[in-house]
Amino acid sequence: MPTIHVSSVIDAPVEKVWARIRDFNGLPSWHPRMIESEIEDGKSPTEIGAVRRFKVASGAVIRERLVAFSDSEHLVTYSIIDHPAPISNHVSTLRLEQVTDGDRTFAVWTATFDAPADQGDEIARGMAGNVFQGGFDALKSHFAKS
Prior knowledge:
This protein has one domain: START domain (Alpha-D-Glucose-1,6-Bisphosphate, Chain A, domain 4), CATH 3.30.530.20. It is about 25% helix and about 40% strand. The protein has helices spanning about 15-20, 25-30, 120-145, and strands at about 5-10, 35-40, 50-55, 60-70, 75-80, 90-100, 105-115. A seven-stranded antiparallel β-sheet has the order 1-7-6-5-4-3-2. The chain is globular and about 45 Å long.
């Protein structure tokens, strides 16, 4: 089972970073690889069980289910339910913490999933670099301009 752990420090208060990312349907507003998103079945983007269907820049369509959400803990956990790569049993958490030294944000994005043995490491590298670190880089760039 591949495990991914990516962390970063963003030069902005945790409340501002959380406000930017908390919308489970809002990936296209802050992540450069995500180009459109919708919540299925008219559910709220903070309702546990909500499913988002989004398209990435490559044209692939991905569906993810919201598993946990907490404004007080600045946390969102989701599972991928449809993905073009051969993965299953995926669980991912994006969590923010306040860094008191400089009023910055410590961001951690983790994931575990099952994949064929010969593909798991490559899928994990892509997810870690393109999705997780790519998202953190976009957030750092956004707040550097603010």
